[in-house]
Amino acid sequence: MSDTDMTRYVPNSKTNWKYFTLFVTLLCLVSSFKHKELSWVAIGDSITYLNEHPEETGHRITKGYMSRVVERLPFIHYTNQGHNGWTSGGIASAIETLGLAKADLYSIFLGTNDWWAGRPLGRLADYQRNTGNGTVYGSFRIIIDKLRSLNPQATIVLITPMQRVDFVYIANPKNNAYGSYKPKNGQTLESFANAIDSIGRYEHMAVVDLYHTNKLRHKKLVKFKRLKNPKSGAYTDYPYPKFIDVPFNPDTDAYPYPVESIDRTYDGLHPSDKGYAIISRKLVKLFKQY
Length: 290
Description:
Elements: H1 3-6, H2 14-32, E1 38-44, H3 46-49, H4 65-72, E2 76-82, H5 88-93, E3 105-109, H6 112-117, H7 124-128, H8 136-150, E4 155-159, E5 167-168, E6 176-177, H9 189-203, E7 206-208, E8 225-228, E9 235-238, H10 273-287
Parallel strand pairs: 1-2, 1-3, 3-4, 4-7
Antiparallel strand pairs: 5-6, 8-9
C-alpha cells in the first residue's frame, strides 16, 4: 500500500472520527471480555496423579497434562483425582468416598491398568444395563452415573489409554510389564480404547483417542531400551520392536531407560514432558469449545 493510499485511513474528518471511535470502543469491549470460569475434575490413574508428583518420576517430567491445559486456558481450574495404580473398577468401588465435587467439566482417563490387571472388558450391553462393577463397561457406567448425579449439565470427556511399550518402574525395576504390542489375559489394550470410544458414541460424549494418535505409537514412546545382549553380555541400545523378548533381570541389570532414551514416555508407559504436551494440546483444542 502506498503512502497516498494509507492516508485514506487517517481520521481527518468527522466521518472518519466516527468510525475510528467505534473501532476503539469495539476493541476495548473485546479486550475486556473474560471467559466464564470453569471447574474441571480430572479422574484417572498414575498418568493423571503424576501431575502433582514429578519427584516420583525422578524429576523426569516438569508438569503433567492438567497444568499444561490451564496454562493455555487460565479460566479453567482443575482438581486432580488421579489415583496411582488404580483401575476403573477401583474408582467405581470407591466412588462415594473419593470426595468428588460438582464441576462444569469432568474427564475420565482410565483403562491401561484395567488391561494389565486382566479385568474383563465386557460388552456395551453391560454399560447399557448397568450390570455392576464386574466389567470395565460396568465400571464406567458407575463412574459416569456418579458424575451426572453431581451435575447433570456437566460436560464429560473420555480419554482412551495410550499405547505402551515395556514398562519398568524407575523406583523399583522389579515392577515391570510388557507393552501393548501383545494381549494380556486374551485382551488387547486397543480393545479397551475401542470400548471407551463406544461408550462415548453411545452417550454422545467427546472422546480423546490417544491410543490411535500417530504421535503416540509404540515406536515413538522410547528411543531405545538398554539391555544386555544375550550372546555377548554387552549393553546394547535396542529400538522398538527389537527389544521385545530380550531378557531383563531387575536384580542384576541396569535400569533400561536412561535419560537419553526418553521420547514420548520416560519409562515405556508414563508420558514424558513431550508426551504430556501432545495430550494437553488435544485437550486444549477440545476444551476451547466450552
